[in-house]
Design goal:
The complex is a heterodimer of chains A (200) and B (256). By secondary structure, chain A is mainly alpha-helical. Chain A has helices at residues 28-50, 52-68, 80-94, 96-115, 123-145, 148-158, 164-171, 175-199. The longest helix of chain A has 25 residues, at 175-199. Chain B is 23% helix and 29% strand. Chain B has helices spanning 5-14, 21-31, 39-43, 55-70, 85-88, 106-118, and strands at 80-83, 95-98, 139-145, 152-158, 161-167, 175-180, 191-196, 200-207, 212-214, 216-218, 221-225, 233-240, 245-249. Classes of the chains: A mainly alpha (200), B alpha+beta (256).
Amino acid sequence: MKLPFTRDQRPGGDVPGDPAGPAGVMDAAAFQRAVDEHGRNVYRYLYSRLGPQHAEDAVAETFTTAWSARQKYDPALASAETWLLGIATTIIRRFRAREQRWLQMCADSAREQSSRSDEPDDEDDAVDRVDSRARGARLAAVLATLPSREREPLLLHAAYELSYEQIAEALGIPIGTVRSRISRARARLQHAVTDSEVAG
Amino acid sequence: MTQHAELYDEIRAVYSRRPSPFEEAAAMRRLAAIALVPDSELTRGGPARRHGARAWSVRVAVAVAVVVVLAGAAIAAPRVIRHFNHADRVDHNVSRLQGPGESMSAAEYRQVQDQAVLTGLELEPVDRSRVLSDGGRTGRLALAPARDGQGFCYTRLVGSSVASGCEPSVDERGVALSVLGPTVVGKVPQQVVGIVVDQVQSVTIVTQDGREVAAGLAGNAFVWTAGTAPERATSIRVAFEDGATATVDIPVGGAR
């Protein structure tokens, strides 16, 4: 499966503290570098979570917040990208209702696709595809009902491939909490999806 | 992660929507200049004078600003597009084109919005709203077209004083303009500002002595300040991207 938020490859990679100057202070130039290097990834992350209508507002708000809070950024604690994703995730909380609607739309769209049978194709493949879309629709619906404290670490881990440590840095919570929340979220998802399959 | 690979694959599929290159470019443009906004302007409170549309204050503000402009500031070439809705949490987005060294506060933008509300105009979100700086450090001009293309609002910042107003009229070719000044006849040259609703290529000001001067153009907004001598613009000529042209007469005495 291709990552939905493919990160841009940059020479030097994502070095913690990369954008900050030697003294660790994020000045205007360093901030501009952070925008250049991470803006797209943060935007894609927000786009996938909020949809096209609100991602642009959210990414602008993320970077405005980051700019205002840049003095608090400590490159020794988190990479710039992790720090920005943490802020973006906080911003998403303010858009919670919109996120729910977006997820619902994704679920509806997947459900609609799974109900179509007008694609001339190999029968087994078609059945598989319909099953997979139906499952995707159920998953999206269940994701929408997860508490955000569980959904956020799970998404950062599953969809954005952040490590538990990075998620802890981004969200400012202990790593043990990250672990337990992801575990709970996974269990809920699997349980709910399986239940609905049985019921369906 | 491999233990839960299938579930994670499905989660990624749910979140698989990605922006188009166009959407991405628009978002990046919007981010481009956040670092250039002074902190004080991101967090500044209300403007010095809300709803400051009293005619006399507009005129005084314009007079001071034009003098400052004449003292040496040229119309700046716009270089940066930025948005302010994130700064002041308002619903409307306004892009701005910024002159060198210039920045506009959220408070100024709110003035434009306030005026729009007062006059029943609805500011257009994102792309077609433009704010134009005339490059003066103490006299800055913001324009925001109405969403329906029926006019525009402007705001000027002169020192700490904000003056603003709206021009709700637009002619048949989609040109809305305002003539600011002269506030002191014979001493303060006029300034012509406006919005062209259609896609515009250039705006030329024709002065009373027959000279033709290009107006500063930013997006669909334009501004022109008279030169060193008191002179009056008599008409503007607009060249549209589709090759059409339109001439709009400027009435004596100011705004329509």
